Predict the 3D structure of the following.
Amino acid sequence: MLIRTLCRTCTGNGTHVAIHARADAQPPRHLTVGQTLTRRTCTDCDGTGHQPLTATDRIPPPRT
C-alpha cells in the first residue's frame, strides 16, 4: 500500500524558491543592493509535490 504525503521541502507545489541577496559595487561609489529569486524543480519530490511512502516506511507519531 502506498501513502502519498506532501513534500516538506516545497510544501506540495513541486518547485523550490530561493532568495539570494547580492551587492554590486560599481565605481564611482555606487552600491547596488538587490534580491534575486530563483525558482527550480524540487529535488526531493522530483516536481510532483508528493513523496510516496510504503505503509511500512511511515514514522509512528510521537508518544505523549
